[in-house]
Write a structure and sequence with these properties.
The protein is built from 10 helices and 2 strands. By secondary structure, it is mainly alpha-helical. Helix 3 packs antiparallel against helix 5, helix 3 crosses helix 6 and helix 5 packs across helix 6.
Amino acid sequence: MAAARPLLGLAAAAAEAAVLLLLLIGAIAVPAAECQVLVMGAYNETCPQAEDVVLKEMTAMVAKSPDLAAAVLRLFSLDCFVGGCEGSILLDSTPGNTAEKDAPLNRGVRGYEVVDAIKAKLDAACPGVVSCADTLALAARDSIRLTKGPFIPLPTGRRDGNRSVAADVALFSPAPDANITDIINLFAIRFNLTAKDVAVLSGAVLDGVAAAVRLGRRQGRVGPGAGRQLHGDPARAVQARPATTPRSSTWTPPPRPPSTPTTTRSSPATGASCPPTPRCSGTLPPATTSSVRPKPPRRTSSSPTSPRPSSP
């Protein structure tokens, strides 16, 4: 029970963050109108038990490790931030490419094993039907519900991306030494969020914890010795490092990652024409119109030059 107290103490923040997650989903989740349309109950015919499977597995895992709820919520938000909610953060690196999950800014991100476990259960019930992107989105939705937040009716039908490049993370995320003005401007421009929205969302997805290496850099910019302790607790002291490069007074977020769809397939969820859809654990075989697909080999990321087939 002791492990659950910090998480349950964030119930109010998680509830408000749930609304903000819906705003993020509405802003960046649908790459192309002609490709995918998110609808309520997209798997009602092809896998009617999908959402029940996700909730059952999340309930069991959060009961054992309550901190996994915040970890999955954070994982989902990081996936959405780069190229949309298309599961690219789940892809593994290859010898020729470092994927998003291995980017320096994503060091310490957890929850991958949760998505893998849920996807395995979904594939056992409905082989190859539910996308990795929807698996992660539904797990994040249920993480809020399981920590005393509201239940959110969530549309589904997301298609998986096959581009995952570590450099995209730094390009489309706030810099480690970004000040509060930079961060507020970023979320205002990209997602139309207010300063209060940013504070609530940041607290909820981080569970009140920040990476020491990033916090040390930010605190080091305050002044000599300033911010070397966290909350006045010497046991949590961080050795601050001063910024080595000057920063501009304003920062404008870059354009989104490019999108160049290749071959298409019929989406079993919507019937729309969509790019190839690799699964969490491998790459799909050639396009097929069947909604039941054989289990593929382990899924890996594309090279940096490969196009991202889905972006907002």
